[in-house]
Amino acid sequence: MLQEIYIKNFVLIEELRLSFEQGLNVLTGETGAGKSIIIDALGLVLGERVRNDLLRDSQKKAIVEAVFVVENNSAAHSILLENGLLEEEEDCIVVSREIATSGRSLARINGRNVNAGFLKSLARQLVDMHLQDESSGFLNPQNYLQFVDGFIEEGQDIGKEIESLFLQIREEERQLENYKNNEQNRLQKIDFIRYQIEEIEKAGLRSGEEEELLALNQRIKNAQALEEGTGRILELLYHRQHAGESALDLISASLENLGRLKEDEFLSRLETPLEEIYYSLQDIASQLSSFRDSLDFEPGLLEESEERLYQLQRLKGKYGQSIDEILDYLGKVRLELEYLENSGEKQEELEETITALKLRYHHLAAQLSQLRQSAAQKLQESVDMELRELNMPRVKFAVQMEPRETPGIKGMDQADFLFSPNPGEEMHSLSRIASGGERSRFILALKKALAGTYMIPTLIFDEIDVGVGGTALVAMASKLYELSLEHQLILVTHSPQIASLAHQHFLIEKASSKDCTFTTVRGLEAEARVEEIARMLEGEDFSSLAREHAREMLTRRDLTQTAAKRE
Predict the structure, then answer these.
(1) Rounded to 5, what percent of the chain is helix, strand, coil?
(2) Distance of CA 428 to the CA centre of its chain
């Protein structure tokens, strides 16, 4: 429900804060006092378009903020949670709209920026607004099936399953269509991928091969220098033929001398480290000798390695920056080839799945159609009863259920609401209702009939009583009060009959000060409320009789509310 609204620098309002209650909230005042400004401000926070004439002071921004309680509003709660605009434990949101002096607007929910489109979408779960100067979106034929479904007593889950099946069928059919449309491309791609796989596999790539080839090339090119250097090192370390002994010989001689002197404790400790050096030199010499022998390369090996490197470079230019990347690519295209080669089987699987889903869909849709026939009759009877109580006994209303030509997300049905204002007149669509009073009373009758199933918590009416008078107005007032027991109602009204039944009454007044006109709003209690209803009955110069009549109307209201609480 709408808990509070704050308005600043908006048309004739300098600054205003209103708190609304559950039940019937009415706004009254003289024509032109600014009642519709409150409705316009509410429309702004519900995502309506910004106009250029909304700023009271063109040098300051306008602000409208509304606090909504969403604790028991599961649809709004889900939308807000999904978009990260509400914490799980929170039950209130603050919706704000700012209009800059440039005319640009900014929308926020709980301090986070949102676009006006999202705000308007969320608003459909928060408020239902009926304005006197526009055709009601409530009577959009797209809503009729939803209203009928509200009267289905059992089998509500069928509709959800049908919706899920419809979306699944559409997705499966989309995939199948893609397979069929891409058949020629698929065959061409299979040939191309096979060529790529064959080329890479034929190359026999091995991770680290390129680095090994580069090292081999460098060694072949430096073979002579490496061989000469290795021989010199071997001669110095292991077997020196000229100008003295090798390092190994010198270490061996040192060990012999140590053997003769090992009775000394210090020299004895040096024997083991010296032996390790001796054996290490032997091992190094052996490795050097093997390395030198490996430098005897076969003729043409350099050309072979360079040719192999060229082959690797060419593959890298096509499939990856390294051999590892090429091998990774090979794994991916093998999987893609498997997918493409099996797509024929996949098409068959999709066709079988779609057939099974459609059988299930049509089976459930047939069940839902039967339930809707019964629900449509209940809705029709409920609206008829409400119309009689609204002093429209001759009006005929019918819910017409017809099959759809093609399956839809809500099944195989479409609904139409037919209306005949007078006996003998042909039934026709609600959109052709001519009289504003008829339209208002019918919308009220429908909303009252749907009160238990229509989940929008707050209903706003801007002068729904226009064109309605006499006993019809009394009946309308009674229906609005009954509706307020299940929904929060906010009404702009000129009717004392409606105002007298309100749980909360606001008076909207226009005042002037220093060549400045502004709108004020104040809540009415006790005698102030009697005075306003008397004014609504007779005008500014109302009589004492009008005051007593007003007091009597409020007394009846108190008795009505007391009786309702007992029930």
Answers:
(1) 55, 20, 25
(2) 39
pTM value is 0.65
Rounded-to-integer distance, Cα 254 and Cα 318, Å: 63
Say how far apart CA 258 and CA 277 lie, in whole Å. Answer: 14
Torsion angle, CA of 498/504/510/513, rounded to 10 degrees?
160
Determine the Cα–Cα distance for residues 18 and 65; give it in Å rounded to an integer.
11
d(CA 400, CA 417): 6
Question: How far is Cα 123 from Cα 128, in angstroms, rounded to an integer?
Answer: 8
CA–CA gap between residue 54 and residue 40 (Å, rounded):
9
In Å, how far are 265, 281, 437 from 474, measured between CA atoms?
Answer: 126, 118, 13
The residues that bridge with 513 in the sheet, in sequence order, are 516
Strand order in the sheet with 62-69: 13-19, 2-10, 62-69, 92-99, 105-109, 112-114
d(CA 415, CA 376): 9
Q: What is the mean pLDDT of residues 355-383?
A: 93
pLDDT above 80: residue 515: no
Distance of CA 78 to the CA centre of its chain: 10
Q: Are 305 and 218 in contact (CB under 8 A)?
A: no
DSSP codes of every residue in 237-302 = HT---SSS--HHHHHHHHHHHHHHHTTSHHHHHHHHHHHHHHHHHHHHHHHHHHHHHHT-PPTTHH
Residue 451 to residue 465: CA distance in whole angstroms: 19
Helices (H), 124-246: 144-149, 156-181, 183-203, 209-221, 223-237
Report the first-to-last Cα separation within the chain, whole angstroms: 23
Question: pLDDT digits over 385-439, tens only?
Answer: 888 888 887 888 899 999 999 999 999 999 998 888 777 778 887 766 645 566 7
d(CA 463, CA 477): 12
Cβ contact 31:61 at 8 Å: no
Residue 388 amino acid letter: R
Nearest CA to 37 among 506, 465, 500? 506
For residue 361, count other CB atoms closer than 10 A to its CB. Answer: 20
Task: Give the per-residue pLDDT at 231.
Answer: 63
